[in-house]
Design goal:
Blueprint (H helix, E strand, L loop, with lengths): L1 H57 L7 H14 L1 H9 L6
Helix pairs in contact: 2-3
Length: 95
């Protein structure tokens, strides 16, 4: 009877160790995947931010594209003329 109890206890301990290892592995993998997804969203955010900043800087400098002038007007209505004036003051860097 003692051998059966020892064998059953050892099987339960081994099963518990495997179960704990698998649970820890699943938690670590899900954490890494969620960090990768968050990094992807962060990269997309900075990509959009760079694109918007490029449009803001290009709007007063590219007069042959009328859509950029419309975009500049939209930015002036939404954020005020001080940003537009600041861009005009910086235009000497690009001429």
């Amino acid at each position: 009877m003692g051998t059966m109890v020892l064998l059953t206890t050892m099987a339960l301990v081994v099963f518990t160790l495997f179960f704990v290892a698998a649970t820890a592995n699943a938690i670590i993998i899900s954490l890494l995947i969620s960090l990768a997804v968050a990094g992807g969203f962060l990269a997309f955010f900075f990509l959009c931010l760079t694109g918007i900043a490029s449009l803001i800087v290009a709007a007063p400098r590219c007069s042959e594209i009328p859509e950029l002038g419309d975009l500049r007007d939209i930015f002036e209505k939404k954020y005020g003329k001080e940003n537009s004036l600041y861009n005009d003051l910086l235009s000497w860097n690009y001429e």
